[in-house]
Amino acid sequence: MAAADVLEQLQQAIAAVADKAGGSVVGIGHGWGRGSGVVIGDGLILTNAHNVHDHEVPLSFGDGRTVTATVAGIDVDGDLAVLSAVTAGAPPIEWADGDPDVGAVVFALANPGGRGLRVTLGQVSSVGRSFRGPRGRRVTGSVEHTAPMAKGSSGGPVVDAAGRFLGINTNRLGEGFYLALPADADLRGRVEGLSRGESTSRLYLGVGLVPGRAARQLRRSVGLPERDGLLVREVQDDSPAGRAGLRGGDLIVEAAGRAVATVDDLHTILDGLDETSALPLGVVRGADELSVTVAFGAGAAREEGSA
User: Fold this and answer.
1) Annotated active-site residue in 24, 60, 77, 79
2) Which bin fits 103, alpha (ψ -120 to 50), beta or left (φ > 0)?
3) Whether 145 is catalytic
């Protein structure tokens, strides 16, 4: 086949995807600083939680219409949010059956901050990848692809050649790749719950952490003995950790009597608790060993944080 024929077919494929799925893509916020989203049902838009900073969210549709959406449900740790708004004229995207395999050709769509539709071409480069969500929890099972995307593209869909929804673009990798949460049965179930207003919340301490090797190096640099643990970089005001008296520079070495060497160790322990629980922490402050007990009150799990 001649090169000109290949290019014409490629052009036709991109145009077909834009025509089929482009009307379902919305802009979140105003300008490059926000993100994108995708209409998944009458009055419902799916996007990333990190695109949502208030209960009311500005939306821009492909036809230029702008509305204000409200948050129906949000899962900060899973980086998903469903918004509620009048979507008249914007068709819900069609979900694909099955997960894409490595090598599959995919198309990424976005409307960064309402600045107009973008469509790019790539292929699936890896599956089963993981990354850290907005509060540091590990998100697993993502699809890595090579479709180049502008800033503000997160929350937009990745689709197949028929314009069917394969995943929601969520996390940019430094090497130019993008990770998308696959539009599988698990995602569909989570989205249905968020659409009903069933926001997902998990307990958190309210601290920024420096893990492992970097924590040991920082302690060594100020003349303190090396210890395995999680170094507290910052403590949020009025957080469970702040109320318990944790400070920046503290090293968390134990939680609930178990050694913690990684952020995942701490999250595993937190996931086994509820808001009525008290969490004893073993902390090294300078060269002193002390115990700190963290209590979790109603609403604590909904705050922003890293752990």
Assistant:
1) 79
2) left
3) no
Number of H helices, E strands in the chain: 5, 18
**Token pair of 48, please?**
């990333």
Among 24, 154, 199, 239, the active-site one is 154
Candidate list 24, 36, 50, 160, residue with the active-site label:
50
What is the DSSP-derived secondary structure letter of residue 30? S
- All CATH 2.30.42.10 domain ranges of the chain, comma separated, are 207-302
Contact 157, 167 (CB under 8 A): yes
State whether CATH 3.40.1000.70 applies to domain 3-193.
Answer: no
Which is nearest to 40 in space by CA: 160, 177, 190, 147? Answer: 190
Phi/psi for 125 (5° steps) reads -100, -20
Residue recorded with tokens 């060497």: 261
* Dist. CA 59–CA 112, nearest whole Å: 11
Task: Look up residue 51 and give its two tokens.
Answer: 């695109």
Q: How many CB atoms sit inside 10 A of residue 215's CB?
A: 22
Which CATH architecture fits 207-302?
Answer: Roll (2.30)
> Does residue 154 carry a catalytic annotation?
yes
Q: Say whether 153 sits in a helix, a strand or coil.
A: coil
Residues of the chain with CATH 2.40.10.120: 3-193
Digitized pLDDT (tens) for each residue of the chain, 307 residues in all: 677 777 888 889 999 999 999 999 999 987 656 899 999 999 999 999 999 988 899 999 988 899 999 999 999 889 999 999 999 889 999 999 888 999 999 999 999 988 999 999 999 999 999 888 777 778 888 999 999 998 899 999 999 999 999 999 998 887 779 999 999 999 999 999 999 998 877 788 888 888 778 888 878 887 787 788 899 989 988 889 999 999 998 999 999 999 988 888 898 898 888 888 899 999 999 889 999 999 987 444 333 334 5
User: How many Å apart are CA 13 and CA 180, to the nearest integer?
Assistant: 21
